[in-house]
């Protein structure tokens, strides 16, 4: 190859160059019947685009080289760019991958138009075929197509070469908060068409059934042949030509022989509308005919009839103000980085559906086309987001005319590709790129091209939630305190629907106050929901010995969020990056292997289609859906008694219209007053196989309390073992290896760290309390121990009263927190047990982890789990595994020996293998060494989790208040 003109253009530092020789984007899906070029390619990594050639090795396509090559590893940054060069410049060290392979062009392709499609390349793609320069493309998340008809010869092999440059002017507008990678992330293929072909098909399918299909036709061989025409059928029903459209075209002098347009119409009677709850799809077949009737080209589409509109301050789908229970989803895989298969995407969406989500924002770029097919099919509303984020240089770029073509290019190509998907209800102009004329230009293009959907852009709505001129039809803030949202909705000034593009940051043990947030949304007209940040914890599976990504070979080296020995979930900094943002990349509702985190159960309940209420003896079943009844669900009643019993009875769900409720009889006789606390749970499951869940999948478990606990348990006689204290005045007990002590601290969660609480606790000394025994006295059989702890906020007085009771010891405690100690992590008791007590049985909320401000989805019941399964392995070790509202528990060995604890009042309990300081000292799980016994915390008060790593902290009611806390518990030997 002689002098390379593509390289000499230096397109990686030319923002005006968005592409060269790339074909226009369109909505005709060419994947089926194409020749796949996926597989192993020859590969070499150059130090820069103009650097000297190196060694040929092999690389997987699709695949990023950052997960395959030892010479250029993943790097994680949030806002900051990984290099200091200002836009549009790039660093001199600019890894560049050269991919090459030979492909046999089938002889039968002679006379056909041959097109190369590169699914996605990051961040600049230069294409050569047979040594000839073919084209350039940017936008790492949309396909690029090039016409190869003139460069290859059917029957001969062709050499395809991709030069992929990692850093470019485009990197400055691809500064999303995720790992930096480079390579080819989506499939590569060749397809052919007749020279006379469908260049685009646009489907409009409103709910009234008036289907319109617009086709664009071209002939690469020259002017369009006489007599071509287009036909189409929807589920067998033929569409008719729009004769008025044809007549106007015929009279229009501007319509040339080179550009063909056709419009087809029909009216579909008794439409089965598409919604996320009822994803009804129809099959549309479009055919392009030559004058003799033969078929030159065809295109298939799945059509969903639905309307999206904004009326007043409501976003309506088919006329209904739907709640948007969304999640932000990145393309992520722990073994490939960014390359995801159709099965991966389906599994993601299935998890979302199973946990009550009905919407996805494709944060922060267009996804693989398959994702939208799946959203259409499974039923999810989609906010489709363009690949524009200039976070670090947001202000400079939004108005920089050099980047104007890129903004319009990225937004328009997304719309051109995705416009026919019923699942897409909103276009998003991108993320965190300030707001400028470049956005308005892109918005203007969309408004003209697709007037059927609203536009959103957080940066435009941020300036003013009410200004209708700005390029966002939706007020879509991120992490706005719910009180601000409510105040806005009540202010009388609201003009746009308020749907948060990001809320409830799921970093580590998080998502406190989700239920309160939703209670406010549901009760405040004008508020419609939002998208949780985010779906994935982006931990890359890493080998600890050599620090490299495990890559595709890592299959089977993780399970249930836990990695195999010698491996760990890597986050920022783990690949030796000098510039990085640490564990901020691990902020999803699922682990890197897609295991749901406990918050998913909370979300599932909040979003559940069925709710129960029990008011003054009246039991009601509510249908919380927008469009359908409860026919698709089955259910079972559970009566949970404080006596340890759970009675079950089949439930038949009544007919309830969407949004309505029906009174139902109590399925069990009302509990006797003496029965104590009684709970009624409705376990709701799928009645049939659904596309996203087999029959019998749990959908939600709403619960109501039928009777409260009896008060006043009479004090028990002191007939138990005598209380023994050691020299330090600590309780000695055969099952305990460390005596019960006061605890005011927890291993900081990510929210505690980033919200500043952990630093305050450290300043107060809560992480290293030193006990000073002030007094020990015996009062009959009771022993009273009074201690004092010095803290930076003043002394904490702690009293323990030990009383022997039948079979055990009652411990009554009180702690007086000084006024300045107004935000402790917890107030409670911690002790450790002998080894061998490996199963926890408890009566309280569960079975999954719950905390005071995240406990709506954990019903009260009689639960049982092995101790090792109680712990939640958040990527950066932190407080985890707590259970809220625990009334009593046993911790036992296989031979049923062990201990039983009864709490005076429901408390927050955690049982695991680690002390708080063990967790706080570790950065990854592979550093943790489980203790042989159990570390048990019984908390009278435990701070809520909040979301302060990015967004509001927990609300005041979930803080640990200063003043006197009293609690009591009884310890018995089983
Ligand atoms: C937002 C941003 C996301 C992510 C999140 C924090 O500001 O849009 O991409 O960075 O915060 O995890
Ligand atoms: Mg950002």
Automatic annotation (TrEMBL):
* InterPro entries assigned: B-gal_small/dom_5, Bact_Beta-galactosidase, Beta-gal/glucu_dom_sf, Gal_mutarotase_sf_dom, Galactose-bd-like_sf, GH, GH-type_carb-bd, Glyco_hydro_2
What Enzyme Commission number(s) appear in the record? 3.2.1.23
Per its record, the protein catalyses: Hydrolysis of terminal non-reducing beta-D-galactose residues in beta-D-galactosides
Q: Which UniProt keywords apply?
A: Glycosidase, Hydrolase
Q: Which GO terms describe its biological process?
A: lactose catabolic process
Gene Ontology, cellular component aspect: beta-galactosidase complex
Gene Ontology molecular function: beta-galactosidase activity; carbohydrate binding
**Domain of life per record:** Bacteria
Task: Using the record's annotation, list all stretches that form the Beta galactosidase small chain/ domain.
Answer: 717-972
Sequence similarity: Belongs to the glycosyl hydrolase 2 family.
Q: What is this protein called?
A: Beta-galactosidase
Origin species: Streptomyces liliiviolaceus
